[in-house]
Structure formats: C-alpha cells, structure tokens
Amino acid sequence: MTDQIALAGWSLVRRFRHPEHPLPLLDFPRTARDEFGFDAVELNSPFFAARDDTYLAELRRRAADAKVILLGIAIDREGDLAGLDPDEPAAERRRARRMARYRRDARLPVRTREPRRARHPRRGGGPARRDR
Question: 75 or 33: which carries more pLDDT confidence?
C-alpha cells in the first residue's frame, strides 16, 4: 500500500462558505484537479448540500469524470458515532448514525474529529517535557 496525498475540503473552507459564490461540493473534485493538481480529495460532512442517493451518485460521477479519487470523509459536528453516552441526546446519536450510513453507502473511509485533550494533565496541557 502506498501513501496518497489528498486535498482536504476544509483547506478550501472559505470558498465553500463564500457568501456570494460558494464552491459546490459537486465541483470540488474538478477544482482539486484543475487548480491544485490533486488526484484525490477528502470530503467534509459540513459541505454536503444533500445526503440522498442521487446527490451521492452525482458526486461520485463528477469525481470519476475529473479522474479524482474520493479518499475519505471527515465527519464533523455530527454527534458521537459510538453513541454510548446515555446523557447525549438521542437526536445527536441518530444524526451520527445517518452520517455513518451515508459514508458507508459512498464506500468511503471515515475519520472523526475527537475532542482535544491535555497531553500532560499535571501541567494543564501542552506536550509533556522530557527531563534531561
């Protein structure tokens, strides 16, 4: 297996969220290829305009037309995918499971953003220093 470098959708967050001319996710694979020379992209859940089969098929078709691989999807702010916390609202767990099913149907690997934790609890964060 070889490593592959992909353009993450979050790298273009300002273009996706541009107030007048936002970049549609469907155009992202072509943009990655034509403007930046990437042949693989990582999608981000906040940029999906829809989550139905038709939209997903169109996204895969456009990526194939651009000769770009959909390498993975980062699922952000969709709830806890594990859903084991009884205090977490049921709606968040349902939303997270829907996104996981969407990722599965797209046949994409999944990567989630985990909460940041202090690396060294006695010092209140930051990397632990090694004594010399």
Answer: 33
CA nearest to 32, candidates 8, 1, 48: 8
Question: Residues 63-91: pLDDT tens digits?
Answer: 999 999 998 887 776 655 555 666 666 66
Tokens 């969220």 sit on residue: 17
Q: How far is CA 42 from the centre of its chain?
A: 6
Contacts of 95 (CB under 8 A, 6+ apart): 78, 79
Q: What is the pTM of this model?
A: 0.65
Q: Please, what's the b/e burial string for 88-122 (b: 16 or more CB within 10 A of its CB; e: otherwise)? A: eeeeebeebeebbebbeebebebebeeeeeeeeee
Sign (positive or negative) of CA dihedral 116, 120, 125, 131:
negative
